[in-house]
Amino acid sequence: MQHIWMSPMGAKAQVTLPKAVRQTLGLSEKDMVGFVVDGKRVALTRIEPVPSSDPFSEEEWRKIERLAGEAPAAAFPDSKASLRYLKGLLR
Q1: Which CA distances in Å does 53 have to 7, 50, 56, 57?
Q2: 15 bridge partner residues
């Protein structure tokens, strides 16, 4: 079922989300929302923070990118072997 709720735009281009919209999206104070723009239509969605599982720091990624330009490509049987190899190069 489709519903339309309205809310006026304030002086600073701010809009208060109607309670029904906040409840539908499960939003509470300080939650993040995203806007999906498709032509002249905009959809509002809740943004779920994803904890980083990145095994490398920003500095390590810069080193990896530099090494990728210098070293020949390497192949590994699995991701764990690849991570061990990269961590070894970063020492």
Answers
A1: 39, 9, 9, 11
A2: 9
Token digits of residue 11: 């002086």
Q: Which domains does the chain have, with CATH numbers?
A: 1-49 (2.10.260), 58-90 (no CATH)
Whole-number pLDDT of residue 88? 82
pTM over 0.70: no
E-only strand ranges, 26-81:
32-38, 41-47
Question: From CA 91, how far away is CA 87, in angstroms rounded?
Answer: 7
Say which amino acid occupies 82. Answer: S
Query: What's the mean pLDDT in 32-39?
Result: 91
Residue that has been written with the tokens 């339309």 in this structure: 4
- Stretch 2-27: mean pLDDT: 92
44 DSSP β-pair partners: 35
The CA distances from residue 13 to 9, 50, 90, in Å, are 6, 29, 48
